[in-house]
Amino acid sequence: xxxxxxxxxxxxxxxxxxxxxxxxxxxxxxxxxxxxxxxxxxxxxxxxxxxxxxxxxxxxxxxxxxxxxxxxxxxxxxxxxxxxxxxxxxxxxxxxxxxxxxxxxxxxxxxxxxxxxxxxxxxxxxxxxxxxxxxxxxxxxxxxxxxxxxxxxxxxxxxxxxxxxxxxxxxxxxxxxxxxxxxxxxxxxxxxxxxxxxxxxxxxxxxxxxxxxxxxxxxxxxxxxxxxxxxxxxxxxxxxxxxxxxxxxxxxxxxxxxxxxxxxxxxxxxxxxxxxxxxxxxxxxxxxxxxxxxxxxxxxxxxxxxxxxxxxxxxxxxxxxxxxxxxxxxxxxxxxxxxxxxxxxxxxxxxxxxxxxxxxxxxxxxxxxxxxxxxxxxxxxxxxxxxxxxxxxxxxxxxxxxxxxxxxxxxxxxxxxxxxxxxxxxxxxxxxxxxxxxxxxxxxxxxxxxxxxxxxxxxxxxxxxxxxxxxxxxxxxxxxxxxxxxxxxxxxxxxxxxxxxxxxxxxxxxxxxxxxxxxxxxxxxxxxxxxxxxxxxxxxxxxxxxxxxxxxxxxxxxxxxxxxxxxxxxxxxxxxxxxxxxxxxxxxxxxxxxxxxxxxxxxxxxxxxxxxxxxxxxxxxxxxxxxxxxxxxxxxxxxxxxxxxxxxxxxxxxxxxxxxxxxxxxxxxxxxxxxxxxxxxxxxxxxxxxxxxxxxxxxxxxxxxxxxxxxxxxxxxxxxxxxxxxxxxxxxxxxxxxxxxxxxxxxxxxxxxxxxxxxxxxxxxxxxxxxxxxxxxxxxxxxxxxxxxxxxxxxxxxxxxxxxxxxxxxxxxxxxxxxxxxxxxxxxxxxxxxxxxxxxxxxxxxxxxxxxxxxxxxxxxxxxxxxxxxxxxxxxxxxxxxxxxxxx
Length: 888
What we know:
Oligomer: single chain
Keywords: ATP-binding, Cell membrane, Hydrolase, Kinase, Membrane, Nucleotide-binding, Phosphoprotein, Transferase, Transmembrane, Transmembrane helix, Two-component regulatory system
Pfam family, one: HATPase_c_2
Subcellular location: Cell membrane
Low-confidence stretches: 828-834, 868-874, 882-888
Strand order of the largest sheet: 12-11-10-15-14-13
Membrane topology: Multi-pass membrane protein
Protein name: SpoIIE family protein phosphatase
Helix content: 40-55%
C-alpha cells in the first residue's frame, strides 16, 4: 500500500509538472484572473471593512492591511477606493487620495450590479490583470471597491518557481504519506473527543432535538437579511411558513417591530413587541463579535400572561393610590354635603364614570338617624358628563323594596348589578327613568350603604357606562372600602353639624330677634358667625326713656359655647343696666365689675378656662337734641357718615377691655346732624390674619363714603361685600343706624315754680297741648300722671323744676328737679291719707322710672296711645274710688 502511495505520488507530481509546463501560457491568464479576484473578494469581505470605510480616516486602518495582504498574496497592488474614485490604499503612498485611472464608470456600473469587474491591459512592464470587487452594506448599499492587480510576467515567474516546490513536495509526500494518515486519524479523534462517526451523528441529532424542543424561539439571520434557522417555537410564535430558510426577513410577513429588530443588527434585551395577539420579549445578539459570520441570533419568549399579571398589579396599585387620595381628599371640611361631594369627586373617573350619594334627612341636619330607611335625599353627584338622567341633587328619593339601594340599606351589604339591562329590581324603581338611563349608556351599578359606628347614614352608587368595563365581583371590596372611609368622615361632619347647630342656635337665640319699635334711628344689622365655630360677638338696640335709643356692640374673646354663653350673660346685663338709665361710662363700669366677678367664679370652680375677656361699645342717641354719647371698653371705635357722604372715625377713648378693672371709662358727646349714619362693628370685620386693621378701616371708609341716601340694609351688604373674606376666621357683627330728630312741635317744655298752686296751670297747659296733638282722649290720664309727678317734685325735690312733654310713638311726661333723691312706690294702708300717687302713675302709665342727670334727676312716665283713658290695671274711675288723693 505504501509503495502504491509512493508510485501514485510520483505519477501525480510528474503529471503536475507536465501540466504546468504545457499549460503555463494558457493558464497564466486564468491564474492571474483567479488570484486577483480571490484576493479582491477576500479583502472586500474581510471583517471590519465596512466600519473602516465609515471611519474618518480609512487609510489609517486599511493601508497596513492592504499592504500585508498584497505581500501575502504576492500581488502588485491592492487598492481600496470609494464610489467617487478616490484611493484609500496603494503601494505607492503618493497616489493615496488621488483619483483612479482606467474605466471608472464601467467599474462602478458593475459594482452597483453587485458583480466584479475584471480586465487586462498592457503596461510598460507587460500585460497586467486587474479585478475590482464591490464593498456593500447588509442592506445592499455600495460603500466602496477593492481592486487587486498582478502582471502576467510575474505569474509565469511564479509558475516556474513552483516547479522545485512541486518536485520537492512529491518527494516529501512519499515520506510523509504513511505518517500523515496516522497523524490525521489521531487529530480527528482528539477533536471529536474520541467519538466515532456514529456517536457524532447521535450528538447532532440530540442537539437538533433540543433546539426544536425548548419553549423559547430561536431565529438566526444572516448578514444579508436572510433567515438561516428558526426552531419550532419560533415558527409557532411568529406563525412562520414551513419553507422559511433562505428567505429574507421582509418577505415573512412579520410584525413591523419584530422585523425591524431582526434586520437592525443592534443588540436588544427583553424588548416587548406585539405579534398578533401575543406580546413577545425579544433578545437580539450579533454573531460577528469574535470573528464569526455576519448576522444575528434572536430569542423569543411569550410574555402575554406575564403582561396580564403586570396589568393586574398596575390596576391594584392604582386602586391603592385611589384609596390614599380618598383618605387625603375626603373630609377636608366638617360639612356633610361637601364631604359627600368629595366622595363622588374622588371616585370619578378612577373607579366609576358616575357617582351619586344619598343621605338620610336627619344626617343632613346633624341629627342621629333612627335607623336605615329607603327614603333618602340625593346629596351629591359627579360624573364624566353633566347631563345623565339621574334624580337631581336635592330631590327626596323613595327607593322601592326591590331596588338594589333599598336592599343594601336593609342588609348593610353592598349590592352589585353587573348588567343593568338584566336587573328587574333596579328597573322597578322607576321604569321610565331607568330606561332613559339605559338609553344614555349607563350599564353597570354598585351600591354601598354608608355606615359608621354601627349607624347607617345613607348610600353611594357607583355607575359605569358603555365605554368602561362592567363592574365585577373584585370591584365590590374596593367600593366597600372607599364607602367605609367616606362614611366615617360624613359621620364626623354630622356630629360637628349637630354641635355647631346647637351652638349657633344658642348664639342666635341670645342675639336680637328683631328690631324694637322706635323712631329715633333707622337701623339695620348683619351678623356672620365664623365657620370655625360660634363666637361671642353681640349687638343690641335698646329703646330708652325720652325717645332715646342705646346702641350696643361687643365681643367676647374666644369661640364655642362658653363664649356664646358669656355673651348672653353680658347682653342681659346690658339690658338690665340700661333699665337703670345709666350713662355710657357708668354702664361700662358696672359691666366691667360683672365680668371680673364672672372670672372669679370660673377660677373658684376650676373650670380650666382662661379669663373671659370682652370688649364693648355703648352709645346713647337723643333725637330731641341730636347728641350721641358713647364710651368704649377696648372695642373698635365707630365710623360716622355725615349727611354729605364724608366718613369720619371720631376719637373715642378706648378704655381697657372688660374684666381688667382699675381704670375709669371716659364718655364723649357727639353732635350729629339729622341723616348722619353711625356704623358700629366688631374687629372681625376690619382685621384678620391676612390684613392689618388699618387697611381694614381704610376699606370700611371707602365702602361707607359717597352714599348718604343708601338704605341701611344696602349699606350693610356693601360693607360686607367689600371687607368680608370667603372664609372668615372670626365672627362679624355690623350695626348701622341713620339718625332722625323729633320736630320742635313734638316737644314742649315748661318751667314750674316750687308752689303747689302751679299744678293747676300745668294741667291746663297739658290739656291744650294734647288737644293740639289731637290726643284729647289721653288728656285726663296724662293730667293725672303729670299732677302726681309735679306734686312730688314740689314737695320732695328742689328747684329748678321743669316739665317736658314729648309726642312720638307714645306720650312721655318728664319732670326734672335739682334733687338726686329718687321717690319709690309703696303700698299705702286704707287708713293712710297719702302714699298712693306713684302707685297711680304706675297703673296708668305703660312704664315709668327715674334717671339721674349731672344737676339732679328726671322722673318720667310713658303712655301708649291706644289705651285711651284706661290704665293697665283698671279704669280711672275704679282706681279713684279706692284712693282719693287730696292733692288731685
